[in-house]
Structure formats: C-alpha cells, structure tokens
UniProtKB/TrEMBL annotation:
One Pfam family named in its UniProt record: PAS_4
Subcellular localization(s) per the UniProt record: Membrane
Chemical reaction(s) catalysed: ATP + protein L-histidine = ADP + protein N-phospho-L-histidine
Main localization category: membrane
Origin organism lineage: Bacteria, Pseudomonadati, Acidobacteriota, Terriglobia, Terriglobales
Protein name as annotated: histidine kinase
EC number(s) per entry: 2.7.13.3
CDD domains hit by this protein: HAMP (cd06225), HisKA (cd00082)
Family annotation (PROSITE patterns): HAMP, HIS_KIN
One CC-aspect GO term: membrane
Amino acid sequence: MVSFRPRTIRGQLTGGLVIFEILVLAVLSLVVIREQRSELQTRTDQRLEYEASQIALQSRTALEGKAFASLEEFVAAMRGSPGVHAVMVTDLAGQRLAGDSGTDEAMELTPTERSFLRDLSKPAIFWGDKGTREAVAPVRIHGVLQALVWIYPDDTQDREQLHSLLRTTLLSALFGIAGCTLFASLMARQIARPLGVLTRATRRMIRNPEDTAAFPIPISSSNEAADLTTAFNLMVASINEQRAGLNDTLALLDSMLANAPIGFAFFDHRLRMVRVNQFLAGMNSLSIGRHLGKTLDEVFAPGAAQALHTAIEQVFADGEPVRDLEITNETPAHGRMGAEMRSWLANIYPVKTETQTVRWVGMILSETTERRRADEALRKSEKLAAAGRLAASIAHEINNPLEAVTNLLYLIHQEQKDSPAQPYVELAEAEVARISVITQQMLRFYKQSTRPARAEVCALLDSVLSLHERRAAMLQIDIDRRYCSEAPLFCFTGEMRQLFNNFIANAIDAMTPGGGKLVLRVQRVRQDAKTGLAGIRVTVADSGCGMSQETRRHIFEPFFTTKEDTGTGLGLWVSAEILAKHHGRLRLRSWERGAGTTHASQRGGTVFTMFLPERLEHELHGEPAPLQTAQSV
C-alpha cells in the first residue's frame, strides 16, 4: 500500500496545516450556510404569512361586494411582488375564484393543499408536495369561512444570496490557506535546517563511531533545536568518556539480568560490596547505601560473615561457583523489639571479563526462614501428636490396673471400717478416682467423635480445667467460674474440648510465672447482637501480660507464636478453624502490661469472648462459615 505521508518536517507541517484549514473551512461553511438558510427560511415564512393575511383581507372586501374583477387585479398585482411566484383564491371546494390560470398551481390543488380545506383560524405555512414552502390564509365573511388564499413563493433571490455568501467564504478561505501555507513553509525551514545538520553529523558518526570530528555541532539558533543540539553534543562527549569502561559495565549488567532473580550482591577482590539490589538490602533491614563499600563483617553476623568470606575467596581462587550454601544471620525483628534469627540459601558464582579472569564475585540469596520455621513447627506438631497418642495409650493401659486398685480399696474400706487406717483408705480412693478422671479426659482428647452430639458447655470446661488445676495452683492462679445453670450445645465435643483447652492453656501461660486470675464465664444468649441467633457465650479472661497490637494482628496465622521454645503457632489457628466449623464468632480484647493503660489493675490482660450459635446436626455437617472476629484494645 502506497503511503502519501510526507517524509520531511516541512511537508508534514504544511500538509497538516492545509488539511486542518480545509476541515475548518468545511465545518465553517456548513455552519454559516445552515444558519443563513435558517434565517432566510424564517424571513420567508414571516413574509408569506403577512402577504397571505393582506390578500385574505382584500379578498374578503371584494367578495362581500361581488367585485371579482378588482380581486383579479389585486391578485395579479401581488404576483409581481418580490419573492412571490403565484397567488390564487379558491372556494372551499378547491375551485379557483381568482389568480393566474396559466400556472400549474392554479389548475388543481394537490392532496396536501386539499388537507387545508377546513375551518382555518389563521394563516398556515407548510411544505407542498413539490418540496416548496406554501402559505394559505382563510377568508371569512361575517365570521363564516368563504374562501382560501394560496401563495406560492419564489426562492430565486434567496438562492442567489446563499451562493454569494458561499463564494465569499471560499475566496476568503483560499487566501487564508495560501498565507498559512507560506508561513508554515518558512517556519518548517527554520526548524529543519539545524536538524539536517544534526542528522548528517549523526550518520557520519554511525558509519565510524570513532570519528567525532563533526562534533561539537555549531549552534545557529536559540530555540528547542539549539537545546537538542547542545544535548547531543554533551551526549557524544559523555559516550567518549564512558567507552573505556563500557565492556565491564555490560558484563556486570548481563550477569545481573541472567543470574540474580532474587537478592544479589557483587564483591571485588577486597571482598567489599560494589553493588547490591533492594531485595538483598531489605533482607538485612539496611539501605543500599549502607551496603556499598562495606565488608561482610560490617553487614552480617560473625558466623554468617565467616562462611561467606571463605566461599567468596574460594570462588576468586579457582573460578568455580559455590552452590546452596546455608547461612543464618541475626537481624532486627519486623514490628517487634529485639532481633530474630533468619536463614538464607546462598549461591556464589564468578563474574568473568573477556580475558576469562574473575573480575567480581556475584552472590544470590534466597530467604528460607519461613520454610525452616514451617518445618520446625511441623516436627513439633508431629511430636505433639505422637505424645498424644502415647499418652492415650498409657491412659488406656492404666485403666485396667486402676480398676483393680479401686476394687481392692473398696473391699478394704468395707471389711475394716473400724480400722485406724480408714481415713488413709478414703484418701487413697479419692486420689485413685482423680487419676481415673484424668485418664478419661486424656482418652477423650485423643478419641474425638466424628459426629456432633449435645453436650453441656460447663461440663466441658470443667473437664478441661481438671487437666490444668494442679499447674494453676502451683502458679497461684485463682480460677473464677461464672457459669449459668444450664448451657446445652449441639457440637463436636472433642473439638470443643480442644478449643477450650487452647484458650485456657494460653491464659495460664500468659500469667506465668507471676500468677493472677482466670475468669471463665458461660452465658445463654437469646439473640446475639451481630447474628441475631440464640446460642452460648463463653468468655476466657486472664490478668496476664496481654498482647501488643502487632501480636493481635498475627495470632490466628499458622506457625505464628510468641513462645519460641515451647510453642508451635498452631493452637489459635486450629481454634479459629473449630469456631468457623461451628459457625461461631470471636471477640478479642487485650492490653499490655506496663503499656500505660488506665485499667484498674495495672497488670494487663486478655479477654477472649466466643459466641457459639445453637445449630442442628445437618447444619454442622455443612461448609464452615468464615470466622467473624473483632478486636479492641
């Protein structure tokens, strides 16, 4: 396909200006002609209405006096008026009473004209069947319609006026286009001249990059072209200055693009960082500027720095990469006080120049902290599961001899009622009964039911507390039970025990070692404020150390824990899943100890409030609802 687009600035500017003016001329002509035609049409209609009214008045006078000859003369005189082609007077049947009989209009009325043979109240202007404007006016004698006056206008004069206006517009536009084209050509020449000089010098440099004799290019103007020429001169000078180090820079950039998809750093022979990316800088919580020129000992912990130092020296020595080097480093903890241990996987490789000598050593770091934490938490959870299975097995095996001991104590109690050792027998029976309760609770935790059943929430809480009472007593923790009389709930009893156990165990941990108060409240709710459902509200409150805002944001995430030595980070995550399965709702309030709180105890604390709606069996087997949580300080 042939393109007619001009290739030069002069041609593009001139052609674009001509096309623009032609478009403007066309639009302007259309608007002017349209407005002029509308104005002429309005004037013609007003003239026709006036002339029709005058002829109707004269016709009424002539028809009253039966003066048809004078009417004929008046009509003939009106036909010679400016803008009038023909005039005719007819009766209500359409028969001509006066007018030029030699015209086509006088011979017979058209269907459109006959539609006006009715009781007209005033003159009317309309479009005839031949596409021309016509006027009709009623002739009334003593209030009775007797005849109609028809006027056929002559638009020759109007067309001549429009043609004259169009010729004037076109002539003015042609003069304007010629003047603008000449002006645009002169301006384009002034613009294109320095650009032509710049183009020729550029082509000369392309043919021979070492030939810079044409530079600096002389500047002959003071416009944007001069700025462009100045910038080009500076660019050529900068290229000459940087050509010596171009190959090294390209090798460095190619290595960065090809081998550093994550965090990277480059080291010189003195083991100083010459370049790092933002990802690696973020790993150490330091800015890029605080890495450049630094040694490994100034950025990493001693253990990690020594491992990297040895590996980088090895790469400089033999030119072979070191892969999958695991390192650990202590960095500031995000959002928390102190520091945290983080781990990375390092891949160290040589960056060689054209002479195959190792100029730099590159290092790629990928963080493995979260993966190691997940693996560690998984190992801990597996250990806990194994311990649970072992505890359940032991509890099952203890039940048999325990039952025998219970029977023997009963027989001793019955046969030696008067013995001085009777109180000791009763105490032994009580302790054996307590051991039996503990083993039964352990079995219930392990052998969880797969079907929901109706359970008493207060009894579930007491069964969980029986596992923690001894520890709570040793820690001087006061347990305050505030139960309602009855709190039945249709639920998975094993999961509900696990839920309560997680919250109670965390509360006791929060009050270790200073002791405190643990409040357990169970209430029946007729209608929950958020869901509108009936159910059970369970509150677990402690006066422990409380939680920070950062901790509250993450407590329901898997593997998040504040107990680095003993915690797995799965307890509250599992609890949230259990609540969601039971369509429950959770509210958390907490204030840190010593955080400037105005709480009366000044000790801090945490309150978990759970709402468990009453559900039918088929509802609990459905999809879990998203857990609704609310937090406040």
